[in-house]
Design goal:
Structural class: mainly beta
CATH superfamily of the largest domain: Metallo-dependent phosphatases
Strand content: 25-35%
CATH topology of the largest domain: Purple Acid Phosphatase, chain A, domain 2
Distance between the termini: 44 Å
Radius of gyration: 25 Å
Mean pLDDT: 91
CATH class of the largest domain: Alpha Beta
Shape: globular
């Protein structure tokens, strides 16, 4: 099923003032046996069932309240009830394409994945970053996405951006539940919460004092259970809202703390309690969350945005705080060091001025988190990484430790071995602790780069011909951290940098509005006219001269002329939505690189040194030259396109 790649281009669209049959499609968890779909357009019902193409129930949508005002709509909302728990359903809105959704698991169940993002925006204002982050989320196939505020920036960029946002996220929102929290940009002048409360039917909705009257009342915050986790949103800091939430959320946490089905409590909202980025942490919120953490051992994780960067704290009163403001909007940077607080605070375990989402995997005994490298740009990046790779990883174990104040012993016999130009393997002897060691934190050159639940770890974010120094510390369930191990250094060998295509898509002149981003093939032909786009994130060159750059394509169908390659005029296209009609043209100033004859069943190496200038996004367009079509494997296959860059 290719639903996670459906974008606005796949929804029926007519011209001359007509609207989409159905667009802005997304759905929200209402309970274990109920979900709610929202969309815009002329379609008035949704049908669903347990088999593809066989729909046994139909729900007629209603007009939501409050009514969104970003466009004339019409806006629709349909609540599906009486569903089976932990069950895959097939659905269709009107006569549109088929999609799927899965209901929440049974109480206490684990083994599911969610994604986190905040400060998102639209492809219209952030074309080179926002779609790429959404595609990374879609690639991860989460059960749901937590969007921690500042969703559309409609107040800053206009109401059309509100509608555009909900089309942009359809790359994942037709298949994964969209679970938001409100940020300041949802209710500041020129926009208000009617546009958002009217698009979501939130579970266990709550009203906060001080909430703007125009969007009153309800859905200022909410909570829901998903398997073995209770998720609790918190509101914006309207007058009296946080003190009211503190009292009422404590009761919701008390209930979760006493429940045998709940292993973890997670809060999420827009504002940070701890932040060294553009928006410093709120002392009021810090006091509230610290108090809740100190009295609820299952409360271990808080998620927020607001500062446009990534940051992770050490446990604070038992709670790890994650700032995930890399949803697509530009980075927020201060001073020459980029951070509002240049010296990394002692509570800050890792931070990165880089866009990207956060992956959260929940098991019965731990939460595994990963900051996923997003597209380069959005400002100055202080982390070089390949989009889709893991920049920071961490583990939070189930509650324990109680009044434990004793840190584990210091890890010993750390070794660092460079096993390739872009890989270093670490190993060390285990630490000991009176209540048990729950994991290890890894530092590289004085900065935290990851965590490991075992005594080994692999660093794949290194560059060739570079010396690195590593240290390791141990942590227990109570958040106690040992001292650092003795250092271990290694130098990576010289060698080429290898990049896998981050995005690619076939373009067909005969189907100008159709997206082929989910195809495992890249088709190049002159008759009919077909071509392809490929995008690579180049990092690690670091200003060094490029000796050679080779594009490697695996050929499925040979041709007397395999096509020609040029850089595109812009890299602001997304695999899940680009079509012939919307694709960027070749840059007229770019050199033209011919591919030559190609044979099926083998790798084709093309020298593209003239097209690669250094670090950054490399976007290429391949044009057909022969009626004898060439077909290459795409990134959706097991043999994706590669870019091999050789530097001194």
């Amino acid at each position: 099923m290719l639903l996670h790649r459906i974008h606005a281009a796949l929804i029926l669209l007519t011209l001359a003032g007509s609207t989409f049959a159905a667009d802005e499609i997304h759905w929200t968890i209402k309970g274990r046996t109920a979900i709610t779909f929202d969309w815009r357009g002329s379609e008035t019902s949704i049908s669903y069932g347990l088999s593809s193409g066989s729909y046994t129930a139909t729900v007629t949508a209603v007009t939501p309240s409050p009514l969104p005002f970003s466009s004339s709509g019409p806006f629709r909302e349909a609540r599906l009830t009486g569903l089976l728990e932990d069950t895959l359903y097939y659905y269709r809105i009107g006569t549109g394409p088929e999609g799927t959704f899965r209901t929440p698991p049974l109480p206490g169940a684990s083994g599911f994945t969610a994604y986190l993002e905040a400060d998102i925006g639209t492809s219209l204002n952030y074309p080179s970053t926002m779609p790429a982050v959404q595609q990374l989320i879609a690639n991860g196939a989460p059960a749901f996405v937590l969007a921690a505020g500042d969703l559309t920036y409609g107040n800053a960029h206009g109401q059309t951006r509100v509608d555009q946002h909900f089309n942009d996220v359809m790359v994942w929102s037709t298949r994964a539940a969209y679970m938001p929290a409100w940020g300041n940009h949802e209710w500041e002048p020129s926009d208000d919460l009617r546009n958002y409360k009217g698009r979501f039917d939130l579970p266990n909705p709550q009203t906060s004092p001080g909430s703007p009257a125009i969007s009153c009342c309800g859905e200022d915050w909410y909570w829901f259970d998903y398997g073995n986790v209770r998720f609790i949103a918190y509101p914006e800091p309207w007058s009296g809202a946080w003190s009211d939430w503190s009292t009422r959320a404590r009761a919701v946490m008390d209930d979760a703390q006493a429940s045998a089905d709940i292993d973890f409590i997670v809060t999420f909202g827009h504002r940070p309690a701890y932040s060294s980025g553009h928006h410093p942490g709120s002392s009021t919120l810090k006091s509230i969350l610290d108090s809740l953490g100190a009295t609820h051992t299952k409360y271990v994780l808080n998620l927020n945005g607001h500062s446009h960067n990534y940051e992770r704290t050490f446990p604070q009163s038992g709670v790890v705080h994650i700032t995930a403001g890399g949803g697509g909007a530009s980075l927020e940077q201060d001073t020459q060091c980029l951070w509002l607080t240049c010296t990394q605070p002692s509570w800050s375990a890792f931070r990165a001025m880089r866009l990207g989402p956060v992956r959260l995997h929940f098991t019965a005994s731990y939460i595994e988190g990963s900051f996923i490298c997003g597209p380069p740009g959005g400002g100055t990046n202080d982390v070089a990484c390949t989009p889709g790779s893991v920049v920071d990883s961490w583990v939070i174990f189930a509650s324990g430790g109680g009044g434990d104040k004793e840190p584990p012993s210091i890890p010993t016999r750390l070794t660092a071995t460079a096993t390739g130009p872009q890989r270093v393997d670490l190993a060390w002897q285990p630490s000991t602790d009176d209540t048990g060691v729950n994991g290890y934190q890894i530092q590289r050159d004085g900065s935290s780069v990851g965590t490991s639940p075992t005594t080994t770890w692999t660093d794949t974010t290194v560059a060739p011909s570079t010396t690195y120094e590593y240290r390791v510390s141990a942590m227990d369930a109570a958040g106690n951290v040992s001292g650092l191990s003795d250092p271990a250094s290694t130098t990576t060998p010289a060698g080429p940098l290898v990049f896998i295509a981050a995005e690619d898509a076939t373009l067909k002149q005969g189907s100008p509005a159709r997206n082929f981003g989910a195809s495992p093939r890249l088709e190049i032909d002159a008759s009919p006219v077909e071509g392809a786009l490929i995008k690579f994130p180049v990092a690690g060159v670091n200003g060094r001269p490029i000796s050679r750059a080779v594009l490697r394509l695996y050929c499925n169908n040979g041709s007397d002329r395999g096509g020609e390659i040029q850089k595109t005029a812009t890299s602001s296209w997304a695999q899940g939505s680009v079509t012939w009609a919307t694709a960027p043209a070749a840059d007229p100033s770019s050199p033209v690189v011919p591919i030559g004859p190609v044979s099926s069943g083998r790798w084709i190496d093309v020298d593209v040194t003239s097209l690669v200038g250094g670090d950054g996004t490399l976007s290429l367009r391949i044009r057909g030259l022969s009626g004898d079509d060439a077909v290459y494997r795409s990134r959706e296959s097991s043999l994706p396109p590669q870019l091999v860059v050789t530097v001194p």
